[in-house]
Design brief:
It holds the Pfam family Amidase. The chain is α/β, with parallel strands linked by helices. The protein has one domain: Amidase signature (AS) enzymes (Alpha-Beta Complex). The protein has an eleven-stranded mixed β-sheet with strand order 1-3-2-4-6-5-10-11-9-7-8, with helices on both faces. A hairpin with a 5-residue loop joins strand 10 and strand 11. The radius of gyration is 21 Å and the shape is globular.
Length: 459
C-alpha cells in the first residue's frame, strides 16, 4: 500500500476493495481510520448522528473470513454510512425528527441488510433533513451538517441526504446510503462535489426505510466515483441481476440532449459556463450533443412532483403532526400540512402517467439528457430561503421515473463544487452508469483531485 495511504485514507471504494483482496490492507485498519477521522472531524462537520459500537469487531470478523478464503465478495470489510431514514439493527431511526422514538430498532432495513450480508460494515447513521423533507439540508432536529468545502462559513450541504454527502466528501466513509424523493441524493452530491445516483424505482426495496412519498421515494447511493456507486448498486439489486434488469453498456457515440437557454434562466452564468464546457468535452469524446426540448418545462414537472409528494407525505405523517405539532420543526410541519389541500391522489397519478408517456416520446431521439444538478453551488446557510428549494433540475426524474446521476464538473468562483446531472429512460440504469463513468473520464473534473485536501483544519 502506498505510504501516502497507509490505512486507506482518501482511497475510493474500488481501490479499498482491491487493497483488501490483495492483502495490502485489513478491514480493521480501514474501519479504524474512518472512525479516527469521524472522531477528529465530525464535531465540526455534524455528518453523523449515531455511531455503531460493533464496527471494529465486525471488521476483525471480516479479516478472519478473508484469511480463511471465505470472503463474502469484493465488498466484504468495506465501511458504509447510512442515512438516518434507514433502519439499522441496534440503532434508533430518528429521521431527523424529535417526533420519532430514540429506542434502537430490532432489524435492519432491506437495503442495509443486503449490504451487511455482503460483508459491508455500518459505521453509523448520518444526518437527514426532518423526515427527508427539504433540499438545502438545513431542517433537522440535530445541528445541520457543514459543507466541507468551506469550513470558514457554514454553507449548505444539500438535502435531504445531507450527512451522507458530507461524510463521503470529507473522507469519513468511502460510500453512503441515501434516499431520493425529489433530488435528495443528487442535490447534496452536487453541492459536496461527489457522485450521487438515483436508480429507477422498484429495483431496490424500501422495506424498513421511513417513507415520505412512496410514488417518488428511491434508495440512492453517494460515493467518490461512478465505479464505486456502480459496484455497490450491483450488490444491492434484488436477485443479484444486472443493473436495471439489462446488461446494456454505453456504446459511443451516445446521443446526449442538452437544454436550451430558456430552461437555464435560473442558472448562474458560471454554472452555465461549466455545463457547456462539460458538454463540449463529451462532444470531443465522440458523443453527439443535440438540443432536447421536452413537452413541458422542467419547472412544471418540479411543481407537479411537489404536489404529489406533499399529498402523500400528509397522508403518512399528517395525523402525527396535527396531534403533536410541537415535536416537529416549523418549516417541515407547515410544508407537510400544506399537502392536505392538494388535488385527489388518483387525479394527480393519472396526470403523471400522461406526462410520462409524452416525455418518453420526446426522448426517443436521445440516450441521455444532460443538465445542471443545481442552479448554483452551495450557498451560505444564512442566505437560504426555505420557500425556494433547489429541485428544479432534479424532481422531474422522480416524477417521470427516470434513473439519474450527478457527477462533479468544477467549482464556482467561491470554490464550491458544481454538479452535472444525466438522466436516462426508466430501467436504462446499466447504460447510464456505464456512460457516466466514461463522462467522468472525458470531463476530467478538478474536484476529485482537490477533495483530498478537505477538512485539514481539524488536524
Amino acid at each position: 500500500m502506498d505510504a501516502c495511504h497507509p490505512n486507506g485514507s482518501g482511497l475510493a471504494l474500488t481501490q479499498l476493495a482491491t487493497a483488501l483482496a490483495e492483502g495490502h490492507l485489513s478491514s480493521e485498519a480501514i474501519v479504524s481510520e474512518c472512525l479516527d477521522r469521524i472522531h477528529r472531524d465530525d464535531p465540526t462537520l455534524n455528518a453523523f448522528v449515531a455511531l455503531a459500537d460493533d464496527a471494529l469487531s465486525l471488521a476483525r470478523e471480516s479479516d478472519a473470513r478473508r484469511r480463511c478464503g471465505l470472503a463474502r465478495g469484493p465488498l466484504d470489510g468495506i465501511p458504509l454510512a447510512v442515512k438516518d431514514l434507514f433502519d439499522v439493527a441496534g440503532l434508533p431511526t430518528r429521521g431527523g425528527s424529535n417526533a420519532r422514538p430514540p429506542t434502537p430498532v430490532p432489524a435492519s432495513s432491506w437495503p442495509v441488510k443486503r449490504l451487511q450480508d455482503a460483508g459491508m460494515i455500518v459505521l453509523g447513521k448520518t444526518a437527514t433533513v426532518e423526515l427527508g423533507c427539504g433540499g438545502w439540508g438545513t431542517q433537522s432536529a440535530s445541528p445541520p451538517p457543514r459543507n466541507p468545502w468551506n469550513l470558514g462559513e457554514h454553507c449548505v450541504p444539500g438535502g435531504s441526504s445531507s450527512g451522507s454527502a458530507v461524510a463521503v466528501a470529507a473522507g469519513l466513509t468511502p460510500i453512503a446510503l441515501g434516499s431520493d424523493t425529489g433530488g435528495s441524493v443528487r442535490i447534496p452530491a452536487g453541492f459536496c462535489g461527489i457522485v450521487g445516483f438515483k436508480p429507477s424505482p422498484g429495483l431496490v426495496p424500501l422495506d424498513g426505510v421511513v417513507p415520505y412519498s412512496p410514488t417518488h421515494d428511491v434508495v440512492g447511493l453517494l460515493g467518490q466515483t461512478v465505479e464505486d456507486v456502480r459496484t455497490v448498486f450491483t450488490a444491492l439489486l434484488q436477485g443479484g441481476g444486472p443493473a436495471g434488469g439489462s446488461s446494456q453498456e454505453a456504446v459511443a457515440p451516445l446521443r446526449i440532449g442538452d437544454l436550451d437557454d430558456a430552461e437555464l434562466d435560473t442558472v448562474t452564468p458560471e454554472v452555465q459556463a461549466l455545463y457547456r464546457s462539460a458538454l463540449d468535452s463529451l462532444a470531443q469524446a465522440g458523443h453527439r450533443v443535440g438540443r432536447f426540448r421536452g413537452p413541458e418545462r422542467l419547472e412544471t414537472y418540479s411543481a407537479l412532483a411537489g404536489h404529489v409528494a406533499l399529498h402523500e407525505a400528509y397522508a403518512i405523517h399528517g395525523a402525527a403532526i396535527e396531534a403533536t405539532p410541537e415535536l416537529f420543526g416549523p418549516v417541515v410541519r407547515n410544508r407537510i400540512l400544506n399537502g392536505r389541500a392538494k388535488s385527489p391522489h388518483e387525479t394527480m397519478i393519472a396526470e403523471r402517467r400522461q406526462h410520462q408517456r409524452r416525455f418518453d416520446a420526446a426522448m426517443r431521439g436521445f440516450d441521455v439528457i444532460a443538465l445542471p444538478t443545481c442552479p448554483d453551488g452551495a450557498i451560505p446557510v444564512s442566505a437560504v430561503n426555505e420557500d425556494q428549494v433547489p429541485t428544479v433540475f432534479t424532481r422531474f426524474a422522480n416524477y417521470l421515473d427516470l434513473p439519474a446521476l450527478s457527477i462533479p464538473i468544477g467549482f464556482t468562483a467561491r470554490g464550491m463544487p458544481v454538479g452535472l446531472q444525466f438522466a436516462a429512460r426508466r430501467h436504462d440504469d446499466a447504460m447510464l452508469l456505464s456512460f457516466a463513468a466514461e463522462a467522468e473520464r472525458a470531463i476530467d473534473s478538478p474536484v476529485p483531485g482537490r477533495r483530498a485536501t478537505l477538512c485539514r483544519a481539524a488536524v
